[in-house]
Design brief:
The chain has helices at 21-50, 61-70, 73-91, 130-143, 162-171, 181-190, 207-216, 241-252, 267-281, 287-297, 306-316, 329-332, 349-354, 390-406, 410-419; strands at 3-5, 98-101, 107-114, 117-121, 147-152, 175-178, 200-202, 221-222, 230-235, 259-264, 299-302, 320-324, 340-343, 380-387. The longest helix has 30 residues, at 21-50. It is built from 15 helices and 14 strands. By secondary structure, it is an alpha/beta fold. The structure holds nicotinamide-adenine-dinucleotide (NAD), L-histidinol (HSO) and zinc ion. Zinc ion binds next to loops.
C-alpha cells in the first residue's frame, strides 16, 4: 500500500454514501408495496432477495429452544458475560425523572417514559451479528421498553443464525421475524398482518436498510444511519506494526466499503504496517472483502507531529479511534470527534465490538461531529412538567400576556388574563 504524507491538501474525511438513484427507487418501491400489500409483499421480497419463500416469518419458541440446546456451553457463558457487561454499562447511562419545587410553590420537572415499542434490525447477509442484537436490545431493556421486535434476513433454508437467536433470547427480545432489507424496515414502520408497527427502528444494515430507514423517518423515529465500519489508528514508534495491521483488518473484513486508516508519526511503523497488511491479508478467511476495503478505502499516512495528526483525525471524525501512542491518556482531551476512543494497546477495537460494555453502534461518515453512540436515551422520551403556583402566576401574568401580544397572539394573552381575576 502506498504511504502518504499528511499535508494540507490530504483530507481523511469520508464522502457520505447516499446510495444511487436506482437504489433509492428500489427502496421506495419496496416500501410502497409493503405498505399496500403487507405480508404478501414481504414474502415476495424475501423470496427475491434471500432466496426462500416463507409462509410464516415468525420465529417459534421451538426454534429458540433448539438454538439454545445446540449452543456450545462455553460459548453460552461468554455470551451471557458479554450481555452482563453491556447491560451494566448502559445501566450507568440511565436517567430518572425529576421534579424541582421552587420556594414560590411552583413545581417544574421532566418525566421520562420508555418508548412503547422498538424494532431492532439485525443484519444478515454477509455475516451473523449476535453482538448487534445485544447492542440494540440491551439498552432498550435498560430503558424499560416493553415490546422489542427483532428482524433479521433468513438464510436460504429459512432459518435464522443460531447465534442470533440465542442472543435474542438472552437479551429478552419479545418477537422475532425472518425478514431483512428494506422490506423489514417498511414492515416495522407501517405494519403488516403479522408485524404490528413500532415507534422507533434501530440497528445497522447495508445501503438498502440505510436508505429505507431514511425514507420512513418521520413516520417512525430512527437511531441513526450507520454506514460501513471505520477505524482510525493514531500511532507513534511505540506501537507494533502487526497489532496495527490486525486492528485495521478487523474493520476491513466487515465490508468492501469499510475504511481503515493509520495516521502515524513514524515512517518505520508506516512501512512495516504496509507489509504486515499484505502478509496478514493472505491468511484471512474473509480476504476478498478485506482486500477490497483496504485497497479502495485504506490509508497509511505519515504526519510530521502528533498535533498535525490529531487535527486530521478530528476532521475525519472516525467511528472508532485507537490511540497507540506513548501516554495515550494525554491525547484524549484533544480528540473532539470520534464515536469511540480506544486507549492503549489492550483496547483493540474488537474489545469494544463484543465485550467491554459500551455500545458498538456508533456514528460513521463524519457524523461523530454531532452524533453519539446508541445509548439508553435513544429508547426513552421526555415530557416536561409544569405546575405553576398562584403566587408565581399573579406576579408574572402581565409579563406573559405582554410577551404574547408582542407575537401578535391575542388569544394567548387573554388565556392568561382570564385567570388573573378574582373568582
Ligand atoms: N455499525 C454497526 O454497528 C454494524 C454492526 C454490524 C454490521 N454492520 C454493517 O451492516 C452491514 C450488513 O450488510 P449485509 O448486506 O451483510 O446484511 P443486511 O442484513 O444489511 O442486508 C441483507 C438484505 O439486503 C437486501 N438486499 C440485498 N441486495 C439487494 C438488492 N439488490 N436490492 C434490494 N435489496 C437488497 C436483502 O433484502 C437482504 O435481506 C455491513 O455493512 C456491516 O458492516 C454495522
Ligand atoms: N465494528 C462494528 C461496528 O462498526 C460492529 C461489529 C459487530 N460485530 C463485530 N463488529
Ligand atoms: Zn467490528
Amino acid at each position: 500500500m502506498e504511504i502518504m504524507t499528511l499535508n494540507s491538501s490530504l483530507s481523511l474525511k469520508r464522502s457520505v454514501d447516499a446510495g444511487t438513484a436506482e437504489q433509492r427507487k428500489v427502496v421506495q418501491d419496496i416500501i410502497a408495496d409493503i405498505s399496500e400489500n403487507g405480508d404478501e409483499a414481504v414474502r415476495k421480497y424475501t423470496e427475491k432477495f434471500d432466496g426462500i419463500r416463507l409462509e410464516n416469518i415468525a420465529v417459534s419458541q421451538e426454534e429458540l429452544d433448539e438454538a439454545f440446546a445446540a449452543m456450545d456451553e462455553d460459548m453460552l457463558e461468554i455470551l451471557k458475560e458479554a450481555a452482563d457487561n453491556i447491560s451494566n454499562f448502559h445501566e450507568k447511562q440511565k436517567r430518572n425523572s425529576w421534579m424541582h419545587a421552587e420556594e414560590s410553590g411552583t413545581i417544574l420537572g421532566q418525566k421520562l417514559t420508555p418508548l412503547d415499542s422498538v424494532g431492532v434490525y439485525v443484519p444478515g447477509g454477509k455475516a451473523a451479528y449476535p453482538s448487534s442484537v445485544f447492542m440494540n436490545v440491551l439498552p432498550a431493556k435498560v430503558a424499560g421498553v416493553k415490546r422489542i421486535v427483532m428482524v433479521c434476513p433468513p438464510n436460504v433454508d429459512g432459518t435464522l443464525p443460531q447465534s442470533v437467536l440465542v442472543a435474542a433470547s438472552i437479551a429478552g427480545v419479545t418477537e422475532i421475524y425472518k425478514v431483512g432489507g428494506a422490506q423489514a424496515i417498511a414492515a416495522l414502520a407501517y405494519g403488516t398482518e403479522t408485524i404490528a408497527k413500532v415507534d422507533k427502528i434501530t440497528g445497522p444494515g447495508n445501503i438498502y436498510v440505510a436508505l429505507a430507514k431514511r425514507e420512513v423517518y418521520g413516520d417512525v423515529d430512527i437511531d441513526m444511519i450507520a454506514g460501513p465500519s471505520e477505524i482510525a489508528i493514531l500511532a507513534d514508534d511505540t506501537a507494533f506494526a502487526d497489532e496495527v495491521a490486525a486492528d485495521m483488518l478487523s474493520q476491513a473484513e466487515h465490508d468492501e466499503r469499510a475504511c481503515s486508516v493509520l495516521v502515524t508519526t513514524s515512517r518505520k511503523l508506516a512501512e512495516e504496517t504496509a507489509q504486515e497488511l499484505e502478509t496478514q491479508l493472505q491468511k484471512l478467511p474473509r480476504q476478498d472483502i478485506a482486500r477490497r476495503s483496504i485497497e479502495d478505502f485504506g490509508k497509511i499516512v505519515v504526519a510530521s507531529n502528533l498535533e498535525e495528526a490529531i487535527t486530521a483525525i478530528n476532521e475525519m471524525a472516525p467511528e472508532h479511534l485507537e490511540l497507540l501512542i506513548d501516554e495515550p491518556m494525554s491525547a484524549v482531551g484533544k480528540i473532539r470527534h470520534a464515536g469511540a476512543i480506544f486507549i492503549g494497546r489492550y483496547s483493540s477495537e474488537p474489545v469494544g465490538d463484543y465485550f467491554a460494555g459500551p455500545n458498538h453502534v456508533l456514528p460513521t461518515n463524519g457524523t461523530a461531529r454531532f452524533s453519539s453512540p446508541l445509548n439508553v436515551d435513544d429508547f426513552q422520551k421526555k415530557s416536561s412538567i409544569i405546575m405553576y403556583s398562584k403566587d408565581d402566576f399573579e406576579r408574572n401574568a402581565h409579563k406573559i400576556a405582554a410577551f404574547a401580544r408582542m407575537e401578535g397572539l391575542e388569544a394567548h394573552a387573554r388565556a392568561i388574563e382570564a385567570r388573573n381575576k378574582d373568582k
